[in-house]
């Protein structure tokens, strides 16, 4: 079994991908040989797929998964469920979260934590943000609303989250939110099955070129939260008698 799979959702990221794959390969090579990168092509119309294929022969295996259903949540879900590694997670193609976080992430998972969440809200995090006033205000309001679904988690939207296998299968298998708000549903599902969630301090830098549009995608994200209440009420009923996931001891890091 592979120790770690990192899923990278991609839609028209031809210009970013070479640096992304080099950065991830370097970071993983310094931590473990038992790892893979899973790039999920979310119906790209540029040369993203060709870039991935050109990098598949490196020291860290790179797999290409196709996800025709549009949406970041759909792409991440497809990548996670295509893997069978002990631990699996995802990061954004812009590598806004510094991959130095991978070492501490594996240590937490190995210690029995079920979910490791990169948190820009952590007091020890270093955050370099350049968002517009509109996006900052929208993000603040979204966090306030999301906290009602995932109490105690300061940052639901950082694009860096990792799971032990049992928890990943449980929360991604029945995921219904396919857009940018999918993180909220993931974490809410994890809390409802008793998963241990750890917020990890990160070094995060806002990278220009985000595909997130504050008005269009912001509206869709709030609409998704409105629908999520009914979804999570169902989850609570269905999972009332299911056992709490327990993380397996961490395999030796090669």
Strand and helix map with partners:
Elements: E1 4-10, H1 17-29, E2 35-41, H2 48-54, E3 62-66, H3 72-81, E4 87-91, H4 102-110, E5 115-119, E6 126-128, H5 133-147, E7 160-164, H6 165-173, H7 182-192, E8 197-201, E9 203-205, H8 216-238
Parallel strand pairs: 1-2, 1-4, 2-3, 5-8, 6-9
Antiparallel strand pairs: 4-7, 5-7
Could you please describe the fold and organization of this structure?
With 254 residues, this protein is of the alpha/beta class. The chain has one domain (4-238): Spore Coat Polysaccharide Biosynthesis Protein SpsA, Chain A (Alpha-Beta Complex). It contains eight helices and nine strands. It has a seven-stranded mixed beta sheet, sandwiched between helices. A two-stranded parallel sheet has the order 6-9. β2, α2 and β3 (62-66) form a beta-alpha-beta unit. α5 packs parallel to α8, α6 crosses α7 (182-192) and α7 (182-192) runs parallel beside α8 (216-238). The protein is globular, with a radius of gyration of 17 Å. The model is unreliable at 245-254 (pLDDT under 50).
Kindly report the average pLDDT value.
Answer: 87
Quickly name the level 1 CATH class: Alpha Beta
How many strands, which pairing sense, and closed or not: the largest β-sheet?
7 strands, mixed
Relative strand content = 15-25%
Q: How many domains, in number, for the residues?
A: 1
At CATH level 3, the topology is Spore Coat Polysaccharide Biosynthesis Protein SpsA, Chain A
Oligomer: single chain
**Total strand segments:** 9
Spatial order of the strands forming the largest sheet: 3-2-1-4-7-5-8
* Shape, principal axes of CA atoms: globular
Pfam families: Glycos_transf_2
Protein name: Glycosyltransferase involved in cell wall biosynthesis
Organism: Kibdelosporangium banguiense
InterPro entries: Glyco_trans_2-like, Nucleotide-diphossugar_trans
């Amino acid at each position: 079994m592979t120790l770690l799979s990192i899923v990278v959702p991609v839609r028209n990221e031809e210009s970013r991908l070479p640096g992304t794959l080099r950065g991830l390969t370097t970071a993983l090579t310094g931590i473990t040989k038992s790892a893979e990168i899973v790039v999920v092509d979310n119906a790209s119309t540029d040369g993203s797929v060709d870039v991935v294929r050109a990098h598949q022969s490196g020291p860290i295996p790179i797999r290409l998964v196709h996800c025709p259903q549009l949406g970041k949540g759909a792409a991440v879900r497809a990548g996670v469920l295509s893997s069978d590694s002990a631990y699996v997670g995802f990061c954004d193609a812009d590598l806004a979260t510094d991959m130095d976080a991978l070492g501490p992430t594996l240590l937490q998972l190995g210690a029995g934590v079920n979910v490791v969440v990169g948190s820009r809200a952590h007091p020890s995090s270093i955050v370099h943000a350049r968002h517009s006033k509109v996006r900052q205000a929208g993000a603040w309001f979204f966090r306030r609303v999301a906290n009602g679904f995932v109490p105690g988690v300061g940052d639901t939207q950082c694009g860096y989250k990792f799971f032990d296998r049992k928890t990943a299968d449980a929360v991604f298998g029945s995921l219904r939110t396919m857009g940018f708000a999918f993180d909220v549903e993931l974490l809410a599902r994890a809390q409802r099955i008793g998963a241990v969630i750890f917020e990890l301090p990160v070094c995060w830098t806002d990278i220009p070129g985000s595909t997130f549009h504050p008005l269009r995608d912001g509206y869709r994200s709030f609409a998704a939260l409105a629908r999520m209440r009914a979804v999570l009420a169902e989850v609570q009923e269905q999972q009332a008698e299911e056992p709490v996931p327990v993380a397996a001891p961490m395999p030796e890091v090669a």
